[in-house]
């Protein structure tokens, strides 16, 4: 028997974005994505769940982010940057300010708390937490310190999964 996922409530996210509370909005977005994927128990959104995210939810999340940031942030902005860089995860991570360097193997991720939570952040920096959150074990495997992606290496799988899903949902 398949469980029906209730419609998502975007009101809190809309309010946070209108207040330009980018960090809280990013956290709300990660929560909404987990809800959309029916991954309420998980800390991180599994890569395989990304492939089944409802297009309507991705469109709504993107619309809210792009509208409130005046085109500075959003999934469509990230997809545009990613495709313009020939799907290169290292270059993308550097372009949006997730990593301080764009040279392998030195493309270590910033700690999430060190991102620029303002409109002065690099274009496409947010939403980011959906990507940052990792289980403790996966954080160590990525070279981090158990704090998500912080100080870990670039791993393109999760990023590729979302970008492919955005493409299939015709999010441009």
From TrEMBL:
Protein name per UniProt: GUN4 domain-containing protein
Domain GUN4-like: 8-129
Pfam families: GUN4 (PF05419)
Alphabetized CDD domains for the sequence: GUN4 (cd16383)
Family annotation (InterPro entries): GUN4-like, GUN4-like_sf
Source organism superkingdom: Bacteria
UniProt xrefs under SUPFAM superfamilies: GUN4-like
């Amino acid at each position: 028997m398949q469980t029906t996922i209730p419609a998502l409530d975007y009101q809190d996210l809309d309010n946070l974005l209108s207040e330009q509370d980018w960090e809280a909005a990013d956290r709300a977005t990660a929560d909404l994505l987990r809800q959309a994927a029916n991954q309420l128990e998980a800390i991180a959104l599994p890569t395989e769940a990304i492939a089944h995210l409802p297009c309507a939810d991705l469109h709504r999340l993107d619309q809210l982010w792009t509208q409130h940031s005046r085109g500075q942030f959003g999934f469509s902005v990230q997809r545009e940057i990613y495709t313009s860089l020939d799907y290169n995860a290292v270059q993308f991570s550097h372009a949006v300010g997730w990593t301080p360097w764009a040279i392998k193997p030195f493309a270590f991720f910033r700690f999430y708390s060190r991102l620029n939570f303002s409109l002065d952040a690099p274009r496409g920096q947010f939403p980011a937490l959906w990507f940052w959150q990792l289980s403790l074990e996966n954080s160590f495997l990525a070279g981090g310190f158990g704090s998500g992606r912080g100080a870990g290496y670039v791993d393109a799988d999760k990023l590729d999964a979302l970008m492919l899903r955005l493409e299939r949902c015709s999010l441009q």
